Amino acid sequence: MTRPRAVVAGASGFVGGALVEAFTDDGYEVRTIGRAGADATWEDAPGIRDLVDGAAVVVNLAGRSVDCRYTDRNRDEILRSRVETTRAVRHAIEGASAAPPVWLNASTATIYRYALDRPQTEADGELGTGFSVDVARTWEDEFFAGELPGTRRVALRMAIVLGDGPATRILVRLARTGLGGPQFDGWWFPHRRYRGIGPHPTGDGRPPWHRSRGRQRFSWIHLDDVVAAVRFVRDDPSIAGPVNLAAPAAADNRTLMAMLRRVVGAPVGLPAWRFMLEPAMWALRTEPELVLKSRWVTPQVLTDAGFAFAHPQLEPALSDVVSALGRRR
Q1: DSSP conformational letter for 113
Q2: Residue 142 gets which letter from DSSP?
Q3: DSSP 3-state assignment of 36?
């Protein structure tokens, strides 16, 4: 009996690796698109078309990591790597004789505005401005472009994924080194790293800052629930369009860091203001936006469809992830 084929692009990351394992466990023949070692590379358009032709499901997670400094070179590569790979998959599906019935493409919950007043849902969420939002908007515009009448498309707007990924490692490192207090936004010297990008850049080019007093919201999702949600969406033909992948119970920064201190056993955690975070994040070669942006996202589409989260509460999810990271050390 021929097994159904699942095509996963960007399988080298920790989310992609988990999905490859999950699809394999589900009985799929898993084929990959990516760099060296994949079944087809991004330069091989005919090879990509052959993989998606007749596939049961396509998942595209490709894109340069945002765990970096937003230099001009990195900014351009973050955008290019998402848009061009998504375009390559779309063109392959357009040229397939048997188009896959469902295509799930990565996106990000960072597409929404800085929110302290209310959570952002797929139905009434307001999009923000600036670099990260423009990347997400351009990415989704490419994903939903054109006509694919035989393929259901779902944009996975992922919140911060708790697992063996860069965001979790940075947060755990801050807590373990005594910097696990709340992070406070504030003034910093003008720069242009967060200015808009793409065909329709937004914002005024100035770095935003807010007097959040450590109450910026933290939307998150456990890696296990990412995998379960992908399976759920794959198997529910009524779900299409943007889908927020975030646990229903968002925390705030103060609560997050207090939980992290308890989980890693750090008795104290020094608070950090932006003037402290900027040089620290420069040394870590990443951006303060990770801990200073208020992401408040609700998974309305998933909950309305009956999806049950295995990790709905933050502290048990953090304990599970930190324990797993410790076993891998």
Answers
A1: P
A2: H
A3: coil
- ∠ CA 40-45-48, nearest 5°, is 45
The strand pair at 160-162 and 251-252 is best described as: unpaired
Cα 21 to the chain's mean position, in Å?
A: 19
**Cβ–Cβ under 8 Å, residues 159 and 295:** yes
40 and 47 in contact (C-beta within 8 Å)?
yes
What span, in angstroms and rounded, lies between the C-alpha atoms of 11 and 18? 8
Transcribe 207-239 into DSSP letters.
PP----TT--EE-EEEHHHHHHHHHHHHH-TT-
Q: What is the reported pLDDT for 174?
A: 87
Residue 326 has pLDDT above 80, yes or no: no
Strands 57-60 and 40-41: unpaired
Q: What is the CATH number of the domain that holds 271?
A: 3.40.50.720
Residue type, 69: R
pLDDT at position 1 over 90? no
Tens digits of per-residue pLDDT, 230-271?
A: 999 999 999 999 999 999 999 999 999 999 999 999 999 999
- Read off the pLDDT band of 329 (50, 70, 90): low
How far apart CA 138 and CA 247 sit, in angstroms, is 25
Which contacts qualify for 82-86: CB closer than 8 Å, 24 or more apart? 82/106, 82/135, 82/138, 82/139, 82/142, 83/138, 83/139, 83/142, 84/42, 85/9, 85/10, 85/33, 85/42, 85/60, 86/60, 86/62, 86/139, 86/142, 86/143
* Residue 174 DSSP SS3: helix
pLDDT value for 2: 87
DSSP string, 237-279: TT--EEEEE--S--EEHHHHHHHHHHHHT-S----EEHHHHHH
pLDDT in tens, 54-86: 999 999 999 999 999 999 999 999 999 999 999
The domain of 40 spans 5-328
Query: What's the residue count for the chain?
Result: 329
Total domain count, the chain: 1
